[in-house]
């Protein structure tokens, strides 16, 4: 993913240190109890192996009747303590792991909410969702394995090694010598695992993108008969992901048989050496059994430790992607000395504004100057790509001007707090977005504390109350994903009701009726007229007939203001506006009689 991170650790050590600092240190009490339980598990495991020594000596060799009761009782006590400690550490670590996932997902969501629109547009939502869901889980698993490996498994090996050295230090050296080559092998495999894991996560993001696009664009897919094509793309992505997964699995699982082979060599060497000592009388049977038991019991934690590095690399690869999102540094943010806008009247002024998307390529706007008095309606018209949407986006600071200044009541929008700036603006878009919630919640989105009466009144003003009341659950009706359970006109009127309830002094209308049928447009236009009363309104219009009554019309062409004036004044100029208007008028006349091509109308879109 692309972005502007403030901190993005690259090495495994840096990533582990950051996870410990930010996620584990705040939960140190829970972690301390879990580690204590792990210490108990390690000690009781060693005690079980050591108890075989007195068991064989006292029960089988010395035939002490008291030991026949005491040693089994001791084994039971040790086993019960180990069971309780194992349960405790497992529960605590699982809870801690889930808390880590929750914390990381909250931080990621906060970062996404703060992220610039430029970053959001550059990164497909499927990839972001993939990282949000999958990467955090891999980080959780890595954190849990680090703690369990470095504490429980490692300490268990140390305790069992202590039992082995207690019984025979020379034999212990022989048995443990096999671990030396295992360390080098594990390091080599861990590098392969991290590389394969990184590619797996990238391909998972690609697959999520394909699935998301296929679901969103299903009507187009079916209309053009491209089901097989989309299936082929998804299949290819799945196969690539599978190949990377297999590479990671191959590297991860290679450590286990390698460790098993070395362990077998160590056991064989220990048995041969112990047998030689036993035949010469230098080692008793009880000592040998206790030693072998400790060595065999150490096998499982050694194998876990051998696989720890390779498993850890998967989590570190996920952590790197995750922190790339968490560390995003938005450029659209409050200035250190920003102050809130107060008593906004709604005057909008562009002073020589220029803007380029991404700071490169031809400018979307070049030295644009606009003056929109408070309480008036201004329209932006012009051909496609003229810069109309860019002008609209600069008012609420979705982007910042590359040069010049956008001012509200004389205040540069960059000098105002974002909360106060956007609180003074309501937006109604061409394709209104509704959340998969109730109609009531969608209307109240701009004012969560609004009363029922205020919500209903906003719906009435937006000509939405009647159709809402006609729904089975009225205002409690859920609108479905993006509001798709409603018609286009119904969605638009709910969006207008949302803007009415917000009651902001500045209103931005982004082609709010261009996608509607005639009847829906009539109802929405009536609602818009009520919404626009007493507000400063900046409207983008494709249908020039809808902005005839605007106080000021700005005609944009190539990122510049080509013409400005009222409808009558612009027609009298006989320039670009007049040509666009005549083209649409002719097109509408043709449509009223015989169907006419759509190309002329497209010339007025932007």
From TrEMBL:
Residues 348-583 form the ABC transporter domain. GO terms for cellular component: plasma membrane. The keyword Ribosomal protein does not apply. The keyword Cell membrane applies. This is ABC transporter ATP-binding protein/permease. It is found in: Cell membrane. One of its GO terms (molecular function) is ATP hydrolysis activity. Keywords: ATP-binding, Cell membrane, Membrane, Nucleotide-binding, Transmembrane, Transmembrane helix, Transport. It is a multi-pass membrane protein. Residues 587-606 are annotated as: Disordered. SUPFAM superfamilies: ABC transporter transmembrane region (SSF90123), P-loop containing nucleoside triphosphate hydrolases (SSF52540). Gene3D superfamilies: ABC transporter type 1, transmembrane domain (1.20.1560.10), P-loop containing nucleotide triphosphate hydrolases (3.40.50.300). Its main location: membrane. The chain crosses the membrane at residues 28-52, 67-85, 146-163, 169-186, 257-276. Residues 32-314 form the ABC transmembrane type-1 domain.
